[in-house]
Amino acid sequence: MDSDASVSDAAALAVSSKVQEKLTRLGINNEMDLALHLPIRYEDETHVFPIAHAPHGMVVQIEGVIVHNEIVAKPRRQLVCRIEDCSGSLCMRLLNFYGSQVKAYAVGKRVRLLGEIRQGFFGAEMVHPKCRIVKEHEPLATAMTPVYAVTAGLPQKTLARLIHQILRHPKQPGLFDETLPDGIICRYRLPGFKDSVFTLHHPPPDTQINLLQSRKHPAWQRVKFDELLAQQLSMRLHYRQRRSRTAPQLDQKHDHGLRIRFLAQMDFSLTMAQEKVIAEICRDLTSKYPMQRLLQGDVGSGKTIVAAIAALQAIENGYQAAIMAPTEILAEQHFQKLSAWFRPLGIQVGWLSSGQKKKDRQSALAAIESGTAMLAVGTHALFQEQVSFYQLGLAIIDEQHRFGVHQRLALRMKGMQQHAGIFPHQLMMSATPIPRTLSMSYFADLDVSIIDELPPGRSPVITKLVADNRRSEVVARIQQACRQGKQVYWVCPLIEESETLQLQTAVETCETLCRIFTDLNVGLVHGRLTAQEKTNMMTLFKQGDIQLLVATTVIEVGVDVPNASLMVIENAERMGLSQLHQLRGRVGRGADASVCILLYQQPLSSIARERLKIIFEHTDGFEIARQDLRLRGPGEFLGARQSGVPMLRFADLDQDGALLTDAQSVADEMLNDYPDLAQRHIRRWLGDKTEYLRV
Ligand code: ADP
Ligand code: MG
């Protein structure tokens, strides 16, 4: 890549270290960063409206002479100026002002105001407009004025000047060179890169402002296309890199001996959707490249059994499989379930958790190392350095969205431990469905299988929203359900600020409920219990010895007790959509009609109201995820805002789906036919960051 040296050696900016420090806060470290610090919006100072005819409800510029100037004391201290032109007049109100402004905006002065006109107490008014003193016949701006994201100590003007300098006199040769081949530019009718960046910083006078503001202008389209393309290229490269690695080929045995014996133990048959994803996964396992497949399926769709069947294929070929879960409770539950399933097949399951006794751990480690245990189940303890596998063929990560972004990245990078140049296959499972545009962008280097059907005989969960002052009705309902032999979860509020407080609340709730339900057995699980205590409590609940289980959100993932058919969630307004969906998924697992009661505290914020409405109206995880993405945006949705890994800055997955599709098809063409341009393109957009978030 020597020919690209000029691109990789991004020229440092010729600014003082003080200014550089502020630029860094805005993510600007080199000339291209600065050139791509595109305006967040524009102001139109290219013409002046007559005051009487200026449209309301949008930002407009007016010009007039100050005819009155007064500091008003009530209802609060403010500076009020009346401005007049030949068509009419309006008020400018400044709630915060300096003494110097009182002097400057003296009667007789001519000013231009930029702002929104509203109907106020004094008639037409502008509150805190941008105000500039001008001479009569002062020329108007000839272009739209860009407005940049700034940071303290680095005002608009300085930033605009720095950007202007880079556009005019970049130090780095070829800074704005085209990275797309002509053919692609023509095919998609894209404007040039340089032109686009220039246009966005200095829109020519005839530019349609609404296209600029709404980011639909061709120049925006080009920039967004380039950004999406960089993401696709980096994903495809990662995909190709994986294809250059070697994995054990895990053949499907003709007689499917183990699988048939395994399925014979079940008192149900697989759904069509399960059959389909099993076929996809098991085909990948036979390949000599490491699989990286994401298995998506709504809560309760039956992913565990799919994982078990994939594991059997590895084991049948003499390789080990490992299943990792994000919480102790879930890992333990998998261990119990899989041991019960695999024991009759003569397969030993090893168990690793951070909380276990040293002796147990030693013997589990030994069994995993010698291959006596062909399946290993555990929490992230499975990934720790001391664990060495006899021969790992398949790593399964359950509820992968629950692992932190950095953990997820680390898992993907390492592909778990490689052994003598052989990489294990990876299967990631998630109950948080990923909307299509997200899976095409942030997940583009993964293969995806989807279970789009629930096992038969499930009746959908009925969701009820109940204001907290109607708790007594809820209590009556619990009593009734338990008399009928059903079991109930009571989920305590999430208190993000303090784990101690959360624990305290859970304990108090449990005590209160014990006092109310003297005839019921009430249990409590929370994050501070030891692994053993949690297991014991869950076992009691599973066996039906406990009717009412008070729990913190530790039960959110994966817990499977089919007889539990009523769930109460306290302070549901504090929880996120995917969390509510996951929690609700703990009921509705048996044949009984299930109910989930969301208790909420009034008053509701508008966002909380919207969330509760969504969870009330929808049970389909995909739809809930789509709405969640819409509400929160991809950064929050993926839990990646603070990860430091680049997210999309300009493209909006909701609006730019078509561009994404184009970028996707261009990526492979570029890598095959124009590898040098592809490299330059990636480096322009990613610099040394080298990769987009992979989740
Ligand atoms: P999830 O996809 O949320 O991990 P699980 O694997 O825990 O779901 O499965 C939920 C429940 O459904 C379990 O009790 C499991 O035994 C049961 N189950 C799985 N597949 C089927 C099926 N094909 N028919 C009936 N029940 C099934
Ligand atoms: Mg599960």
Note down, in words, how this protein is organized:
This protein has 695 residues and is α/β, with parallel strands linked by helices. Helix content is 39%, strand content 18%. A seven-stranded mixed beta sheet has the order 6-7-4-3-2-5-8, with no helix packed on it. The protein has a seven-stranded parallel beta sheet with strand order 12-13-11-14-15-10-16, with helices on both faces. The chain has a six-stranded parallel beta sheet with strand order 17-22-21-18-20-19, sandwiched between helices. The longest helix has 26 residues, at 218-243. It is globular. Bound molecules: adenosine-5'-diphosphate and magnesium ion.
Class inferred from helices and paired strands: alpha/beta
The CATH C-level name of the largest domain is Alpha Beta
* Fraction in helix: 25-40%
Which sheet architecture does the biggest sheet show? 7 strands, mixed
- Characterize the overall form: globular
Physical arrangement of strands within the biggest beta sheet: 6-7-4-3-2-5-8
Rg on CA atoms, Å: 31 Å
Give the overall average pLDDT: 87
Going by CATH, the homologous superfamily of the largest domain would be: P-loop containing nucleotide triphosphate hydrolases
What is the CATH architecture annotation of the largest domain?
Answer: 3-Layer(aba) Sandwich
Number of strands: 22
Count of domains: 4
Fraction of residues in β-strands? 15-25%
Ligands, ions, cofactors:
adenosine-5'-diphosphate, magnesium ion
Protein name: ATP-dependent DNA helicase RecG
Organism: Nitrosomonas marina
Catalytic activity: Couples ATP hydrolysis with the unwinding of duplex DNA by translocating in the 3'-5' direction; ATP + H2O = ADP + phosphate + H(+)
EC number: 5.6.2.4
